[in-house]
Design a protein that fits this description.
Blueprint lengths: L2 H4 L14 H11 L5 E4 L6 H14 L4 E4 L3 H10 L1 H5 L4 E4 L7 H6 L2 E4 L1 H9 L14 E4 L11 H15 L2 E6 L5 H7 L7 E3 L8 E9 L5 H21 L4 E4 L3 H17 L10 H7 L5 H7 L3 E4 L5 H12 L5 E4 L2 H4 L7 E4 L3 E4 L3 E4 L2 H8 L10 E9 L3 H10 L11 H11 L5 H8 L3 H8 L1 H4 L4 H14 L3 E3 L5 E3 L1 H8 L4 H11 L6 H9 L14 H7 L9 H15 L7 H25 L2 H16 L16 H9 L5 H14 L4 H12 L4 E4 L6 E2 L4 E10 L4 E9 L2 E10 L2 E9 L6 E9 L8 E9 L1
Parallel strand pairs: 1-6, 1-7, 2-4, 2-5, 3-4, 5-6, 8-15, 9-11, 9-12, 10-11, 12-15, 19-25
Antiparallel strand pairs: 13-14, 16-17, 18-20, 20-23, 21-22, 21-24, 24-25
């Protein structure tokens, strides 16, 4: 069937003219029915076209389609690929955590592209004006629904889809690689047998032959990488000699580069005929590459591909590999989930990878099958060859995986408490009956019914009820006499910031302390459950000890390493031995600090929140304490803050008073100085006006005075606090726009020669140092 016959008005949105056998069989279920659809098919069999058909059908009816992509990198690829829809007059909008959301664009979009995590966030905030667009989704296409089985992300996808169905009940089209229990997914999504498809390997465009090859494991992990590399090259070499291509998956971006460098040398040793050094045009085109190492290797027929490359480099590598200019390509697993880039031979060199937060972990079985599925080039190969290189001790595990496949399991049980808390916080669960109704919407409940012994199906309801009782006991949820349930402040904040519940309890506990300082803030973040699996290598121990030499802590292992990285961050200097994991740890810490700031505001008050805000800014920018307020100015990071501080400026108010000329003398260009001053004016600047405040008061007398706090800068949320000899008398929180007045009771204490009255203005959401002023009154 030709595309023009099926969807004539959308023919230009497809990159081909005729549907293949798999697509033809699924097409009537998508175009001629309104039911939900579940389709499992081998990798590279053309599932993307099914997604596009579902989108076309939605657009034809004037609806909005949501495409849930498994990886952030793939959302950007879809945005570029679906310019075809843009040319037909339809709007495509990508919503990811990397971008500032444009609610108007999202609301007007015909096709939304999001990750499971961003969809989760949007459905949690659907009642807000910014995320109201999610309620108008008419069709949700889930790409790679077997992500349900991911230990890290599966539960998020599961509860998000269930929530979305309760919010707006869109049509769901779920696509997956081959999975033995497709009926379970169909049962969960209420897809009838007529629209549930399990396409077997006969639908693969190329026959797939898989196998496991072992290597001899040594004591040195670095040497082991090269042992596996040589094994991978042994497997790839015969196919390259026959003018085929090989795709080798390794564990990290750095490994793709190192493996490609070593492979270039090895190719020469093996006298393999590769590369295009005699091709002048290709040699010239290679000069367009941004990455210097890649520029030198592609002309030898060897390349690497990972998400950190520029778009230009990724596009060129993909194009040249498809054209056969590159014969040997090293990549991370991202490529397996994204671009359809098949090779005659696919080798998985690394079955484990280093995770900064978890140490050495196995690549998921889903990733293994996804990667091997890239073997075989349609129209070029009769057979594709997929090989796993692993230690002898794990060979049977991978042989069993290749022989039996992988059933999709629910991962919700391990995170049941946090997700149940989120539903209560959202208001979708308001009583025990709602809890049980919610349970029945989950894949967890369906899978428990299919495998009752493994999931203890008889005890599932009791487990959920016990989880709810636990949330009540721990203070996340409260009940009323009518057995209704409602989230507490603790529960709402834990849900808002996606915290593990034990971390939320730690944060609330810190806020209950009488005193909070920078050290305690860093300590509670480093001890968060989110960092419990952080790895600590023996080679890092000395650097950790040096950083923490003056820090009192009982933390050990990975949490101790996290604490060292945070202390190094606020000092603005991270030891080289800790830099490989420092960025990802800092990013996770900044998310936790943003949550802790709100916990402090809710449970301890504005002063504690302001302290956390300043610590957060120091972790992000690495500036000294006295310069941290400068980072509140938009466009001022660590470098500019240090230059301004060296010039005697400490606050945005100082910057405004200094003016453009002085900033220029401090090292900023005139244009930058003008922008910095303009942004500094947007920040609050409180001035205390004491008015007719007395100089003296008689013993035993009282006088009520009124003090004005005038804001000569931008508006901000603030707390104004009045003290007498350091003891708080009054405090009020407000949105300080222009001015406010506060009462100050002046009294003649009999045992005091003088009284010091202070007014302090604190900004809980900004890293500005508290602003204060005081007056001394004699007691006569």
């Amino acid at each position: 069937m030709k595309v023009t016959d099926a969807v004539p008005e959308f023919a230009d949105a497809f990159g081909f003219e005729e549907f293949n056998r798999m697509q033809r069989e699924a097409l009537p279920a998508i175009l001629d029915r309104d039911d939900n659809v579940v389709a499992a098919a081998p990798t590279a069999s053309g599932k993307t076209a099914l997604a596009e058909l579902a989108i076309c059908e939605t657009l034809r009816d004037g609806g909005t389609a949501l495409f849930v992509a498994p990886l952030r990198a793939l959302t950007n690829e879809k945005e570029a690929e679906w310019e075809r829809f843009e040319r037909l007059g339809y709007s495509v909008y990508v919503v990811t955590g990397e971008r500032d959301l444009n609610p108007r664009r999202a609301e007007r979009a015909d096709i939304l592209v999001m990750t499971p995590e961003k969809t989760d966030s949007a459905t949690r905030k659907h009642e807000s004006a910014r995320y109201g667009f999610i309620d108008d989704v008419d069709c949700c296409v889930i790409d790679e629904v077997h992500l349900l089985d991911s230990e890290r992300r599966g539960a998020v996808l599961e509860v998000t889809v269930s929530r979305l169905r309760r919010l707006c009940d869109p049509r769901v089209v779920a696509l997956s690689a081959t999975m033995p229990n497709v009926e379970d997914v169909a049962d969960w999504l209420d897809a009838p047998p007529e629209t549930t498809f399990q396409f077997d390997d006969s639908y693969r465009p190329v026959e797939l032959e898989t196998g496991v090859r072992t290597y001899t494991h040594g004591d040195n992990s670095f040497a082991d990488k090269y042992r596996r590399l040589y094994r991978a090259l042994d497997l790839a070499e015969p196919h390259i000699r026959e003018e085929g291509q090989a795709l080798v998956f390794v564990s990290s971006r750095q490994d793709t580069v190192m493996a490609a460098k070593k492979a270039r040398d090895e190719v020469g040793e093996r006298d393999l005929s590769m590369g295009a050094r005699g091709d002048y045009d290709f040699h010239t085109a290679a000069e367009e590459l941004d990455d210097e190492t890649l520029r030198h290797s592609v002309v030898d027929g060897v390349a690497f591909h990972h998400a950190g490359l520029s778009k230009n480099d990724k596009d060129l590598v993909e194009e040249w590999f498809k054209r056969g200019k590159i014969q040997l390509l090293f990549s991370t697993s991202t490529l397996a989930w994204g671009v359809n880039l098949p090779a005659r031979c696919v080798v998985i060199r690394d079955t484990k990878y280093h995770d900064p937060l978890e140490g050495e972990v196995d690549i998921s079985e889903l990733d293994v099958l996804q990667m091997l599925g890239r073997a075989g080039r349609p129209e070029y190969d009769d057979v594709g060859y997929g090989r796993v290189v692993c230690d002898r001790s794990e060979a049977d595990k991978y042989r069993r995986l290749l022989r039996e496949g992988k059933e999709i399991e629910s991962r919700l049980a391990a995170e049941l408490d946090s997700h149940l808390n989120a539903e209560v916080a959202l208001g979708t669960i308001s009583g025990l009956d709602d809890v049980m109704a919610w349970l029945e919407t989950t894949f967890y409940y369906v899978r428990a019914g299919t495998k009752p012994e493994a999931y203890d199906f008889e005890g599932v309801r009791d487990r959920v009820r016990d989880t709810l009782d636990s949330l009540v006991e721990r203070g996340f949820v409260e009940t009323d006499e009518a057995l209704g349930v409602e989230a507490t402040t603790l529960g709402r904040l834990a849900s808002k910031y996606y915290l593990r519940l034990s971390t939320a309890e730690r944060f609330a506990g810190l806020a209950d302390r009488e005193t909070i300082d920078e050290a305690s803030v860093l300590h509670v973040v480093a001890s968060a459950a989110e960092f419990d699996s952080a790895s600590s290598r023996s080679s890092e121990a000395d650097a950790v000890d040096r950083v923490l030499s003056d820090v009192d802590t009982s933390l050990e292992g990975g949490n101790r390493k996290v604490l060292a990285i945070l202390h190094a961050a606020v000092r603005g200097s991270t030891p080289s031995d800790l830099r490989s994991d420092a960025w990802i740890i800092r990013q996770n810490a900044l998310r936790l600090l943003a949550a802790l700031r709100e916990f402090a505001d809710a449970f301890a008050g504005a002063r504690a929140a302001n302290l956390v805000s300043r610590v957060e800014a120091r972790v992000e920018h690495g500036v000294k304490r006295e310069a941290v307020g400068l980072t509140a100015i938009q466009g001022v990071g660590s470098g500019r803050a240090e230059r301004l501080s060296a010039g005697g400026l400490a606050t945005p108010a100082d910057v405004v008073a200094a003016g453009v000329d002085r900033l220029a003398r401090a090292g900023l260009s005139e244009g930058v100085a003008e922008r910095v001053v303009a942004q500094a004016r947007e920040l609050p600047n409180a001035v205390v006006e004491w008015g007719e405040f007395p100089d003296a008061v008689a013993v035993g007398d009282n006088e009520l005075c009124e003090v004005t706090v005038r804001n000569v800068g931008g508006s901000a949320r603030a707390e104004v606090r009045v003290t007498a000899n350091g003891v708080e008398m009054t405090a009020k929180t407000l949105y300080l726009s222009e001015e406010t007045t506060v009462p100050v009771g002046v009294f003649g204490a009999p045992d005091e020669a003088e009284m010091r009255y202070g007014v302090e203005v604190v900004y809980p959401e900004l890293p500005l140092l508290p602003e204060s002023d005081s007056r001394i009154v004699r007691v006569d």
